[in-house]
Write a structure and sequence with these properties.
Keywords: Membrane, Transmembrane, Transmembrane helix. This is DUF1573 domain-containing protein. There is one protein chain. By secondary structure, this protein is α+β, with helices and mostly antiparallel strands. It has one domain: Sandwich (Immunoglobulin-like). It has one helix and eleven strands. The radius of gyration is 23 Å and the shape is extended. The termini are far apart. The relative contact order is 0.21.
Length: 174
């Protein structure tokens, strides 16, 4: 009888903990959702301001032995105002990005935040003008552990904190 009572108490406590965890996670989600949804809103706002025909590029199968691969994305300021771009970053140290101004001046490389010094871009895309974002992926950066599918991101941020996200994918082979 004593064992049965202990088991019931343990199950009751576990049940109460699960309810608290479930209820708590709903409250946490409801508290953070407005912040997350505002970020989604900001992403779409910059897409309306900076126009690009392509945000995703799949390199397909690439070989480590062939070295770096690159892709250039074009962005156009679709507004009547100049847009200041203070920041260009990547999601991984294996990826670097360059900002190429309308006159051809190449700025960078820009890499992953928190991994060494990433310089500020602080360039303006004038109303109606276009700039290029050159992305270079190094399939050897992770060594043998880097074989397989990769998914990397490049973030172009305006002076208001809005981000335009580019994505590259590949299947890396030795």
């Amino acid at each position: 009888m004593k064992t049965k009572t202990i088991i019931i108490w343990i199950l009751a406590i576990l049940g109460a903990l699960l309810l608290l965890m479930y209820g708590g996670s709903k409250n946490i989600m409801s508290l953070t959702l407005p912040s997350d949804s505002s970020k989604v809103s900001k992403i779409s706002e910059i897409k309306d301001r900076l126009i690009t025909s392509e945000i995703l590029y799949d390199f397909g199968t690439i070989s480590m032995k062939d070295g770096d691969v690159s892709k250039t994305f074009k962005v156009t300021n679709g507004t009547s105002l100049d847009i200041l771009i203070p920041s260009l970053t990547t999601s991984c140290m294996c990826t670097r990005a360059y900002f190429i101004e309308p006159g051809g001046n190449k700025n960078g490389p820009f890499g992953m935040q928190g991994m060494g010094v990433v310089p500020k871009l602080n360039k303006t895309i004038k109303a109606g003008e276009s700039a290029d974002i050159e992305v270079i992926y190094d399939p050897n950066a992770h060594g043998p552990a880097g074989v397989g599918m990769i998914d990397r991101f490049i973030y172009l941020e305006d002076s208001e904190g809005n981000k335009l996200q580019f994505e590259i994918k590949a299947r890396v082979t030795p």
